[in-house]
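Message: Just now I want nothing more than another pair of eyes on a protein record. I am handing you a single protein, as its sequence and its fold in token form. As I understand it, each token names a local backbone shape. Take your time, and here it is.
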Amino acid sequence: MAGRTAGLMLLAGAAALASGSQGDREPVYRDCVLQCEERNCSGGALKHFRSRQPIYMSLAGWTCRDDCKYECMWVTVGLYLQEGHKVPQFHGKWPFSRFLFFQEPASAVASFLNGLASLVMLCRYRTSVPASSPMYPTCVAFAWKMDYFCASTVILHSIYLCCVRTVGLQHPAVASAFRALLLLMLTAHISYLSLIHFDYGYNLAANVAIGLVNVVWWLAWCLRNQQRLPHVRKCMVVVLLLQGLSLLELLDFPPLFWVLDAHAIWHISTIPVHVLFFSFLEDDSLYLLKESEAKFKLD
């Protein structure tokens, strides 16, 4: 036991110097995975594993090797806790208690609730705002396309929406050219991360950069128009809340009850922000429609 403790402490000290995560570099973990694969992942044992594996796990692509990694992860976590060491990460992630085929169940549920909130508010927007509103096509059609890919594109869509609101209504050609530029940036960004190298540092820097552009642009417009358009204050609150809540992503701690981590908390906390943002979009679209109708009558 003393030798194992010394090995764990030595590994903890070398964590900053080596690549990978502390948990999956642990010899106990590696040996456990190797033995598990030899015992369960070939020949008749593999057939037995597949016969008793729930169908939802196989449909999700959960393999025998994945199952070995999961079981051995908890063996290693138990040893760390038994020896009084901090919980390690495995393959860049904290250990989570699996539910069905969800490796991070709280984040999955929170993401679903986020999407549900957006869907409900989008349906409300479509029923309360006539399609003749100047902002309607931008808020509905393009949002679906951009939101499909990843979180980064949500920020790009917000920047595009801000461009349309501040410049594009008067100069549609400018908004169209800017949209093409954003789509080109998005394509290059996703292609680099998917086909060349998924660089976490670059991805973080890129998201921070476009996030700052989004915040500064929206806030500048809100501050300029808040006296004339009271509903703009909703947009200000949304922007400030999202920036404040994004600090949760910087927290890094083992999941509470092996389920709830900072990322899941962030997802849950942003649900009401979506509701407030769609409320702003609804108010602003109705204002623009009223303004457009008044201008048409004058003409």
Remarks:
- The mean pLDDT is 78.
- The radius of gyration is 25 Å.
- The CA atoms of residues 41 and 64 lie 6 Å apart.
- The first helix runs from residue 2 to 13.
